[in-house]
């Protein structure tokens, strides 16, 4: 059987997910697209030579008779509305992060899904599907470096546009670490503090960049994450775990080592689309397979909510400079794996 997908939001990641659903993955085709900028949607259809209809609004797409599952890849503030509409229509929905831009928005989705009685939502947290993070988790669970005591992480983008604001370093960028580190450590955050180093002159005047986020977890592990979204040199994701008896690092993406011009060098990627390209393929193939099999198993609306509660605490910590508690309600049985 082939799953008919409708995609709302045909910007950078929407295009890339449409390409992957149409040209790379098995078991799905894109039959409907929508973007607030209609030309964006029409261009994707012609560029990728899709047999897909362009809709003037996302709700008509969700309710179209031939759309069996929905991908929400529009900008963050529009996610909640479309995910709630997909749940109301009883259709499975893959939503890019953030699930909603506030914890309350995510809670509204969790409540609607629980009321529906069956999981319909998967959130686009792809890092747990990345081979490198999976290998790192295997080392931790094998006990080879003992219990994790400290993590040193970095999330660096070469540049960001003028619309990117200081809180987006949390809600748009750090949100990946918030999700993946909770999964990696099998632990929850209890508090957070944000400190601001000397500002990079490469950042727009309104943006505080870089930032350092300091977490404490329930088991007492300390985590520092550097967010630096105008680092210029590349797209660079780092994660080092210091354990009781050793250190484990996230593997670098594979790249040819060169000896040339009196230098020993390896390439650094510059685009997030390339850095996690395999993980995006695996997460979306998982969504397609799960929808066809009738039960979703990927990152849930609860994971989206947990990340958002943590993000809210981080934003409060940005504003106050204080150590802010992170308080997450117990996970409802509905979301137990
Ligand atoms: P983008 O700005 O390139 O594309 C967003 C598209 O959505 C635009 O074409 C815009 O016109 C459209 N849009 C906005 N509001 C809409 C609405 N109400 N209805 C229909 N279309 C609408 O953004 P992007 O980089 O593709 O990011 C989109 C989403 O994907 C964001 O939530 C972002 O956080 C997420 N994202 C995730 C990753 C990841 O690594 N998982 C990477 C990039 C982006
Ligand atoms: P983008 O700005 O390139 O694309 C967003 C698109 O959504 C635009 O084309 C815009 O016109 C459209 N859009 C906005 N509001 C809309 C609405 N109400 N209805 C229909 N279309 C609407 O943004 P990008 O980078 O593609 O990000 C989109 C989403 O994907 C964001 O939520 C972002 O956080 C997430 N994302 C996730 C990544 C990941 O690694 N998982 C990587 C990049 C983005
Ligand atoms: C973007 O939306 C992503 O999700 C990328 O993975 C991240 O590195 C970037 O900072 C975000 O803006």
From TrEMBL:
Gene that this sequence comes from: iolG_2
Domain Gfo/Idh/MocA-like oxidoreductase C-terminal: 137-326
Occurrences of domain Gfo/Idh/MocA-like oxidoreductase N-terminal (ranges): 3-125
Protein name, per record: Inositol 2-dehydrogenase
An example Gene Ontology molecular-function term: inositol 2-dehydrogenase (NAD+) activity
Gene3D superfamilies to which the protein is assigned, alphabetical: Dihydrodipicolinate Reductase, domain 2, NAD(P)-binding Rossmann-like Domain
UniProt catalytic activity: myo-inositol + NAD(+) = scyllo-inosose + NADH + H(+)
Lineage, broadest ranks: Bacteria, Pseudomonadati, Pseudomonadota, Gammaproteobacteria, Enterobacterales
GO biological process: inositol catabolic process
């Amino acid at each position: 059987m082939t799953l008919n997908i409708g995609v709302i939001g045909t910007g950078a990641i929407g295009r890339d997910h449409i390409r992957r659903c149409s040209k790379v993955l098995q078991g799905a085709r894109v039959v409907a697209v929508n973007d607030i900028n209609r030309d964006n949607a029409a261009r994707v259809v012609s560029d990728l030579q899709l047999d897909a209809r362009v809709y003037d609004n996302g709700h008509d797409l969700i309710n179209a008779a031939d759309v069996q599952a929905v991908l929400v890849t529009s900008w963050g503030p529009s996610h909640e509305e479309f995910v709630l509409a997909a749940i109301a229509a009883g259709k499975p929905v893959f939503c890019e992060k953030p699930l909603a831009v506030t914890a309350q928005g995510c809670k509204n989705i969790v409540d609607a899904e629980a009321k529906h009685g069956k999981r319909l939502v998967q959130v686009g947290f792809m890092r747990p599907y990345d081979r490198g993070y999976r290998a790192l988790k295997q080392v931790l669970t094998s006990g080879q470096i003992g219990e994790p005591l400290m993590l040193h992480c970095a999330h660096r983008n070469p540049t960001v546009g003028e619309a990117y604001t200081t809180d987006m370093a949390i809600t748009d960028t750090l949100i990946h670490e918030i999700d993946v580190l909770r999964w990696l450590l099998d632990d929850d955050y209890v508090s957070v503090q944000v400190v601001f180093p000397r500002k990079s002159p490469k950042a727009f005047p309104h943006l505080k960049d870089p930032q350092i986020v300091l977490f404490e977890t329930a088991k007492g592990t300390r985590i520092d994450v550097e967010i630096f979204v105008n680092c210029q040199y590349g797209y660079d994701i780092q994660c080092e775990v210091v354990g009781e008896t050793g250190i484990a690092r996230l593997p670098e993406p594979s790249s040819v080592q060169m000896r040339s011009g009196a230098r020993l060098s390896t390439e650094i990627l510059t685009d997030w689309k390339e850095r996690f390209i395999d993980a995006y393929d695996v997460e979306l193939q998982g969504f397609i397979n799960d929808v066809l099999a009738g039960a979703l198993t990927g990152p849930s609306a609860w994971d989206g909510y947990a990340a958002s509660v943590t993000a809210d605490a981080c934003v409060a910590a940005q504003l106050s400079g204080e150590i802010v508690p992170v308080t997450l309600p117990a996970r409802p049985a509905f979301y137990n794996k």
